[in-house]
Amino acid sequence: MTATVDAPPDQLTPVRFHQVGKAFGSGRKAVVALDGVDLEVGAGEFVCLLGASGCGKTTLLNLVAGLDRPTSGRIELNSSRPAVVFQEAALMPWLTAAGNVELPLRMAGVPKAQRRAKAAELLELVRLAGLGDKRPHELSGGMRQRVALARALASTTDSADAGKPSLLLMDEPFSALDAITRDVLQGELLRIWRATGTAILFVTHDVREAVRLGQRVVLLSSRPGRVVQEWDVDDAPDAVDEINTALRKVISSHAA
Ligand SMILES: Nc1ncnc2c1ncn2[C@@H]1O[C@H](COP(=O)(O)OP(=O)(O)O)[C@@H](O)[C@H]1O
Ligand SMILES: [Mg+2]
C-alpha cells in the first residue's frame, strides 16, 4: 500500500525507507531484526508504528536517529537531526528542567540568552511554565516526559538545520505512565503536534493509542519486522477492532 502524504509541495519527505534490513551479528547466530522495510513519514505527518514486543520497533527508530546503521537497503533522511523521546525520560539528574531543555541548544552552539528564551517557550508549550528550575526528581513521571518532549523539540529546532522538515521519534513514551496521565499526555502531544507541525514517528504496542494519535498506523510483523499493513485512521476511529485482529494474527503466526 502506498502512503498518502498531505505535505505542501515544497516540503521534503523527512524520512523514507527503501527495503531496509537490519541484522545483529552474523552467520548462524545472526538475529534478523528488520527485513525489507519500506516506510515513509511525510512532512508534518503523524505515523504510528505498531508491533508486538521484540519485532524491531526500537531498532527501526535507532536507524532513523542515526544511532545504528542498516545492514541492507537505504534510509533517505531529509529531516533536521531527529530527536528521540524514550519510554524513560532519561533527563540529566543534575540539571534543572530548563537546563535539560537547553542542553541540545547548548550543544548546537546557540547563545545563552537565545537558548534561555527558547527553553522557556518550550516549557510553556508543554505546560511546565514556572517549573523550569525544578530538578527531575522533584517532578512526576508525566512531568518528566513533558520535559523530555520539550528537550526533543529543542533539538529539532536548532537553527543549523533551518528549512528542513523536522521529525520527532517517540519510542513508547507513555507506556510507563499510569492510564490517566497517559491519556492526558496523548491529548497534549496532539495539541503540540498541531502547534509545531513537526512530523512524528511514534512507536507503540497499544492499538488504541496508535489509532487515537496517528493519521496513519503501520503494522510491523513479528521478527523479522516488516510492514504488514497500513491504515489511514484519521477518519476511522473504529479501526481499532480491525487493527487488533490483524495484530493478533501476526503475533499468533509466530507463537512458539
Ligand atoms: N544490539 C543488539 N544486539 C543483538 N540483538 C539485538 C540488539 N538490539 C535488538 N536486538 C534484537 O532485535 C530484536 C528487535 O528488538 P527491538 O527493536 O528492541 O524490538 P521492539 O522495540 O519492537 O520490542 C529483538 O529480538 C532483540 O533481541
Ligand atoms: Mg522497543
What's the overall geometry?
globular
The helix/strand series, from N terminus to C terminus, equals EEEHEEHHHEHEHEEH
Percent helix, as a range, is: 25-40%
Alpha-carbon distance between the termini? 29 Å
Which second-level CATH architecture of the largest domain applies?
A: 3-Layer(aba) Sandwich
Strand order of the largest sheet: 5-6-7-3-8-9
The CATH topology of the largest domain corresponds to: Rossmann fold
Work out the helix count: 7
Mean residue pLDDT: 89
CATH superfamily of the largest domain: P-loop containing nucleotide triphosphate hydrolases
Estimated share of beta-strand residues = 15-25%
CATH class of the largest domain: Alpha Beta
- How many domains in all? 2
Number of strands: 9
**Structural class by helix and strand composition:** alpha/beta
Low-confidence stretches: none
